[in-house]
Amino acid sequence: MLACDAARDRIAPWIAGEIDLQAGRDLEAHLGGCPDCSAEAGRIRQALAILETGEAPDPGPLYWSSFGPRLRARIAASARRRLVLRLASVAAAAVAVAGLAVFQIRLPSAPPWLAGGGRAAPPAPRALTVAEAEARLGALLRQAVAEGQDESDLDAILDEIAPLDLLDAADDLGRISAEEGRALFEELLDEQV
Amino acid sequence: MQVDPDRQDGDERLVARFVQGDESAFDDLVARHRIGIYRLGFRLMGSHEEADDLAQEAFLRAYKALRRFRGDASFRTWITRIAINLALGARRPRGATVPLEDAPGLQCAAAGPDAALKRQVRRAVGDLPNRQRQVLVLKVYEGMKFTEIAQITGISIGTAKATFFQAVRNLRGRLAPAGGAPGEGA
């Protein structure tokens, strides 16, 4: 025979229709012989019935007609922020590589007596391609999200380093001209210096 | 949740079209699911403004991630999960929010003899702890089975059932004065 504690744990799933046949039979048998648990089941049924009256209001056709365009604007804004971040990463990579190149130039060259028996000279630095910079940035973002940083926080960070008003010149996402790209690039460098 | 196989099949085709570069397929997905996600947002967040923000953000995240969508769950389940995660992470507004029935220019079914009860229910659901509210909403309003709720919320099936029971007991306490049946004295 089911104890009251165990029976009460089963009441809500039973009312929701998600209890196996035998467990349901056991519960019904208990409810048939236990006025307290039977009353509890009745109260829970009433509470659920009241709950089902709480429908969500319809905001109306004006709202729905604006939903799609507003979403598209939000998508476009998010994509612009990502473009700016890509450009910023290229700028950062270029600065880092330029700095490395300067450092390499200032290093004293190895004395001749080392040339034959010393270690091989390090490879000459090269600028990252845009694809490589994007890949690095993507990896950094994925790592940040994997470590628990919320995507909306990343968007907030992007907003700080690249406010949307800097992008007014970017007329058509995906078809930004080389000149516009250069102008944007230079603006970003100015912001960061 | 009763999943209409034709609808699910339609969603799969739309996702496939989108992955192949058809942007209008995403607009069709939005049109199919925006009402459900808005209503879920309203029930979870309690106000029109927050429901709108949650729905918009859920679809934005879906847009960004759709090309990586593996199809191991239905699109409906997948975007519902996104919405639930957003609601879990959402912070409560500090100021008072305008209830939908008081927002100008919006139609709603707030008039009538049941209006006070509906407001009471909405408030009681809103006062529940986050996880209890989510499980309750998914079960009662979305009609989902506990296996689906567990998948969406990332908890075990047993925990989903126990959480549902706790939510209902809490609700019963909030909707009725001590010792009375729900609805009495409301």
Describe the fold and architecture.
- The complex is a heterodimer of chains A (193) and B (186).
- By secondary structure, chain A is mainly alpha-helical.
- Chain A has helices at residues 4-15, 21-33, 35-51, 61-106, 112-115, 130-146, 151-161, 178-192.
- Among the domains of chain A are: 4-51, no CATH class; 124-161; 164-193.
- Residues 110-117, 160-175 and 188-193 of chain A have low confidence and may be disordered.
- In chain B, 65% of the residues lie in helices and 0% in strands.
- The longest helix of chain B is centred in the N-terminal third of the chain and has 23 residues, at 23-45.
- Chain A binds chain B through residues 9, 11-13, 16, 18, 43-44, 46-48, 50-60, 62-64, 67-68, 70-71, 74-75, 78, 150-152, and chain B through 27, 30-31, 34-35, 38-39, 42-43, 48, 51-52, 55-57, 59-61, 63-64, 89, 100-101, 105-110, 114, 117-118, 121-122, 125, 136, 139-141, 145-146, 161-162, 164-165, 168-169, 171-172, 175-176, 181-183.
Domains of chain B, number: 2
The proportion of residues forming helix of chain A, as a percent range, comes to 55-70%
Structure classification of chain A: mainly alpha
Main sheet attributes: strand count, strand direction, barrel closure of chain A: none
Strand content range of chain A? under 5%
Please write the string of helix (H) and strand (E) elements of chain B: HHHHHHHH
CATH topology of the largest domain in chain B: Rna Polymerase Sigma Factor, Chain: A
The biggest beta sheet of chain B is recorded as: none
Give the fraction of residues assigned to helices of chain B.
55-70%
Radius of gyration of chain B: 18 Å
